[in-house]
């Protein structure tokens, strides 16, 4: 992919982000931060490539350490979001 | 060796799908009913991204599995155990990990460019455009890391929330930023190790310098801002790797953090620049409080409060960070339940900057089993205070201060506030009359004829009110 196509994807994604995030209800802003945290750990893709590649031992270990950090975030981020979202309940109707 | 530039079509499509699933994850948060499904979409998206990458580059699976397992267990256990009041610290800590991971990935790409497919086929050197992307990625990652560490230490109480003001800090900060930008430019012509690692080191320093002068009251903005940075760091690495999932996610997270910062700034009527410049909520405390300290005010007891509220038709509860500090949310919900049994309408009013991060109060109330349809945002409930019998303010202060509407000299002038003073009676739970809010300004509501001050620890006070309601 050339730079211009990548840039186009990026710019369009920023617009999607803008509209999607404004539609998030303020009551869920904390889960929003937790889940954005989890998904920004998609950087794990880069870490995995570095860990799997031959050629430079240093780069491999840096990659593996990055995999650990990103995994903390992925598992922690999704789990804590799930835990928070499970707490939001509607009024119980009695009778 | 796998060239990233020649990613097979199926893999490119898989990354696109995971990017779309991340969009749906955020989209789900538009309502609590769809939110959990959204979170599942996010998990599936991540799984697709990881599996695709492993299939493409599947060597050294054992070490990778161990690394994922270590991180996964740490993350999962932390997420299960963390107290909801500590959520801002946790989010700051998570941001710092994203930043650090970005730095490590950028360093790995710098040391082993062939594996990332960023070598120029003709010259065997790193591509010019990749150098810029890598330089920016490592800089943003490092700023996110050290900034988040400071934010974590401040939120976690390991470091004072008071702003630390270095002399000449604006000059130092701008100089360091200029040096980073200059070095990223120079990196294009010379990809020596010292250039890359100096960029990294300076970025760690600037992240630290940018956050230390920012005071406790501005933490919601800082946390949102670092959220945004962590997204831009992921996007920059996505550019380096030509990876759609990373670019889409980076753009989403970057915009999300930026919008939250904007909402927080607006809710405090502060400009983003003045927050970044720092120093708010430190020095003025002594000056504001002293002059008005001897005005008359009324003290109430838990019994008085219980009586007033059980006679009311509608009670609006205004929680603030003080409620979180004393863990009063469960007692508060019990009080709400008793009132509802007695036929009183109970509503909760949340100011956007109540708590230490966006939406923090909503989570704490949800944890205490307060139904989310009883919890209202400022603009939805503010007109109701005039028809309300009792406004019950607990652990909030600045967000109820009418000086924001009238006193042009007040540091909080122009900030949207909850109009509690319009209620027939205001019950104000506060630790003592001495302390003032983060902004360091006195609150006229304390001295109104229809205000009753309930002095004491928030949780104990609410428990006493519950006790006398049950009698």
Helix vs. strand class of chain B:
alpha/beta
Biggest pleated-sheet summary of chain B: 6 strands, parallel
Structural class of chain A: mainly alpha
Record field, number of beta strands of chain B: 6
Global geometry of chain A: flat
Question: What's the helix-strand series of chain A?
Answer: HHHH
The proportion of strand residues of chain B reads 5-15%
Total DSSP helices of chain B: 18
Per DSSP E runs of 2 or more residues, the count of β-strands of chain A stands at 0
Unreliable residue stretches of chain A = none
Largest interface: A-B, 82 and 118 residues
Key features of this structure:
heterodimer; A: 95 residues; mainly alpha; 4 helices; B: 471 residues; alpha/beta; 6-stranded parallel β-sheet; 6 strands; 58% helix; elongated; disordered N terminus
Give a summary of the structure in a few sentences.
The complex is a heterodimer of chains A (95) and B (471). Chain A has 95 residues and is mainly alpha-helical.
Structural write-up:
The complex is a heterodimer of chains A (95) and B (471). By secondary structure, chain A is mostly helical. Helices cover 74% and strands 0% of the residues of chain A. Chain A contains 4 helices and no strands. In chain A, helix 2 packs antiparallel against helix 4 and helix 3 packs antiparallel against helix 4. The longest helix of chain A is centred in the C-terminal third of the chain and has 29 residues. Chain A is flat and about 65 Å long. The mean pLDDT of chain A is 92. In chain B, strands 3-2-1-4-5-6 form a 6-stranded parallel β-sheet. In chain B, helix 5 runs antiparallel to helix 8 and helix 8 runs antiparallel to helix 9. Chain B has 471 residues and is of the alpha/beta class. The termini of chain B are far apart. At the A-B interface, helix 1, helix 2, helix 3 and helix 4 of A face helix 1, helix 2, helix 3, helix 4 and helix 8 of B.
